[in-house]
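Hi everyone, sorry if this is the wrong subforum. Our group has a chain we'd like a structural model of before ordering constructs, and none of us has done structure prediction before. Sequence below.
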Amino acid sequence: MQFGHIQKQFDNVDKRLDNLQTFLYWGFGILISFMGFLLGFVLWDRRTTLAPVIREAEELKKQENRILDILRSYSEKAPELRELLKKAGIL
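Answer:
Right subforum, don't worry. Here is the predicted structure as tokens:
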């Protein structure tokens, strides 16, 4: 009789451990899934945030090149401007 009672207690402990193990599997699975989702969201957000900034920087660089071309071509007619551009290190 006593062995049957002890066996029942061991069975209860095994059942509780199985339930705890299942709970931990689910918990870690949800945690890892959330971390993967969060990483994906961060990468997506960074790309969408940087795209307009990169486009604007490229446009500013094109404008800068146009202005420099205009100054260089005008400096051929104006020697004072040519000297100023040389001092500034543009020519």
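For your construct planning: Residues 2-75 form the longest helix (74 residues). The chain has one domain: 2-88.
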